[in-house]
Amino acid sequence: MSLILSDELIRQTQRTEEELRQDIAVMLYGEEKLTLAQASRFLGVDRLEFQRILAEHGVPIHYSSEDLQDDIKTMEELDYR
């Protein structure tokens, strides 16, 4: 997913592009529009890093069935026992 932020928006909000992208990801995650995995991919960070970002914003972690399935798939791929 790509997102183009105008220079005008960046100037008006006095936020960096990365800060705005984080704000959007956190907001959409908080509204349960994106899963943890989707929001992490949107920012290009791993889940632990996104969880840290959520903590900085005071947003609790939602653990959906899709997140569980992603974790199970990852464990199977890593042959985790």
Helix percent reads 55-70%
Major beta-sheet overview? none
SSE order: HHHHH
Separation, N- and C-terminal Cα atoms = 33 Å
From the helix content, strand content and strand pairing, which structural class follows? mainly alpha
Describe this protein with a few key phrases.
single chain; 81 residues; mainly alpha; 5 helices; elongated
Q: In summary, what is this structure?
A:
With 81 residues, the protein is an all-alpha fold. It is 65% helix and 0% strand. It has one domain (7-77).
Describe the structure.
- The protein has one domain.
- It is about 65% helix and about 0% strand.
- The protein contains 5 helices and no strands.
- It has helices spanning about 5-15, 15-30, 35-45, 45-55, 65-75.
- The mean pLDDT is about 90.
Task: Give the SSE layout.
Elements: H1 7-13, H2 17-30, H3 36-43, H4 47-57, H5 65-77
